[in-house]
Amino acid sequence: MSMVTELTIPMAQNWLSEFCKAVIELEDHLNELDAAVGDGEHGSNLSNGARALQESFKGPQSKSLGEFFEFAGMTIINSVGGASGALYGTLLLRLSDVTANKTTANLNIMSQAFDSALEGIMELGRAKPGDKTLVDALHPAVSSLIASVQNSDDLLGAFTKACHAAELGCAKTAQMEARKGRGSYQGERSIGHVDPGATSMTSLFKTLSNSIDFFSK
Amino acid sequence: MNAPESVVTEYLRGLAASHPEVIEFNSEARIVQRKLLPTQPKVGLISGGGSGCEPMHSGYVGFGGLDAACPGEIFTSPVPSQIMAATERADSGKGVLYIIKNFGGEVMNFGLSAEIMKRKGIEISKVIVNDDCSFPISHFDRRRGLGGTILVEKIAGAAAQRGDNLAQVTSIAKRVVANSRSFGVAFNSCTTPKLGHPNFEMPEDEFDIGVGIGGDRGHSRSKMVSADKIAEILIEQPALELDLASGKKIIFLLSGLGSTPSIELYTLSGLIHEKLESIGTKAVRSLVGNFITSLDSFGVIATFLVADEELLELYDAPIDSPALRWGK
Q: The CATH number of A6-215 is which of 3.30.2350.10, 1.25.40.340, 1.10.20.140, 1.10.940.10?
């Protein structure tokens, strides 16, 4: 087993490919979660984006992580629709900005990239932690990454912890009252249901830690 | 429908086939656009939103209305590639106004598109429609764009047609938003094509108060009441916020949500007219029918716009679109 210290372009591609597969498998589940708090389309919309992204991976390989994430972000923005397309697209575009011209990114860079993604998402969606949105999975994951940089964790350890933080954050959304997006129209009645956006965001971290693990073997 | 995956495309093809002299469906860009470009340069108007709310917005494309509309997937905002294509189609050198309903996805996707189009040198202006007064003022940011959107599209469309510049058209659009309020009720939940069952259960003898479009639940649920009482519910908050007791003229829009029979709509319309007159307000124009819907929901949205002489004149100006056609 070799220690992986940096995210590479093949790993990034493996990650998003696995995320696409996961989203397509989760389509019905996400739709059902969304029907409880919104319009029942989160799974279908993200799956449309996942299929478009899978198709785009058949093209030539990107020359840098920045180029790869920019391309993925624009594909998501122009295929998903709704708030989730703009938000997931923004996340990928922010990863692109921080990894521009880089072929690899270590934990420090990835932590900065996800911190920038969180900032971009909170700015665009005007959501804060506790509003019962995908921010409630992303925010604890980013905090965990920043702590891992301080603790000098290895890449796999850091993203395993970040994934765990996202899972915990996502589970906590069940007890929250939605304050942003479609769910907010339900007020108190949104309590008791896990947020679909936080669920798909958790899957993004799960597939990333899986990919790092896969490349570590 | 044939299949959930193709229902939006097949609807758009059908709309274009039914109104070939007015609009066309640009299937590559996935936008609905005016068949004939304006003869004189004018401010362009575009809007867009989730499908399932027909005839909004594609039904309001045409002379005196929108220049292009961007239909998203069911209850999902359009994507920037559609919005940018619509912007380029609508731009004749005098800038483009984005008419955006206050839903997160629309605000974000039109916002992203505006930033990109401005960099390309097209002047963009935005109006956010939030005429829904079912949320209290303390939750102002949750107020959705409902029936007022149609009146913005009609009236700003007329202002653009008469030659107003972008700032003037935007100002007219904002005036319509500021002076309109909507309130909705629904008696069932709609069924989204992919989910295949109602989004939520609604007992037969109950109904939801404060609904929007998109299959969302209302704010509260009540035991069934008479049509008279429903007319009162629809009018109460708009009347309060628009200060309707003081002898104003209004344009009144009553839209079914997709499965509401005309006989019910006109019954309610009559009752609302009476109640308005009893408080000294006159509905001088009325639109009753399916103008903003939510798939197969059984319910209504009532919209009230306090109209001055200029807004009335612009409302009366000619329009030639699939869903509104007069004066031409």
A: 1.25.40.340
CB atoms within 10 A of CB A74: 17
Q: Do B104 and A180 touch (CB under 8 A)?
A: yes
Helical residues (DSSP H) of chain B, grouped into ranges: 7-18, 80-90, 104-119, 148-161, 166-178, 227-242, 262-278, 309-316
CATH superfamily for B4-178 is Dihydroxyacetone kinase; domain 1 (3.40.50.10440)
pLDDT band at A1 (very low <50, low <70, confident <90, very high): low
Cα separation, B265 vs B258, whole angstroms: 11
Q: Which among B7, B109, B140, B200 is the top mutation candidate for probing chain A, defined by the most A β-carbons within 10 Å of its own β-carbon?
A: B109
Task: Please report the DSSP string for B280-298 in residue order.
Answer: T-EEEEEEEE-SS--TTB-
**In chain B, what residues touch A31 (CB-CB under 8 Å)?**
194-195
A133-142 average pLDDT score = 97
pLDDT grade for B328, boundaries at 50, 70 and 90 = confident
Dihedral angle, C-alpha A31, B84, B323, B214, nearest 10 °: 20
Residue B243 makes CB contacts below 8 A (sequence gap 6+) with: none
> For residue B122, what is the DSSP state?
-
Q: pLDDT tens across A165-174, in order?
A: 999 999 999 9
Residue type, A81: G
CA A110/CA A93 separation, integer angstroms: 13
For residues B85 and B29, the answer to whether their CB atoms sit within 8 Å is yes
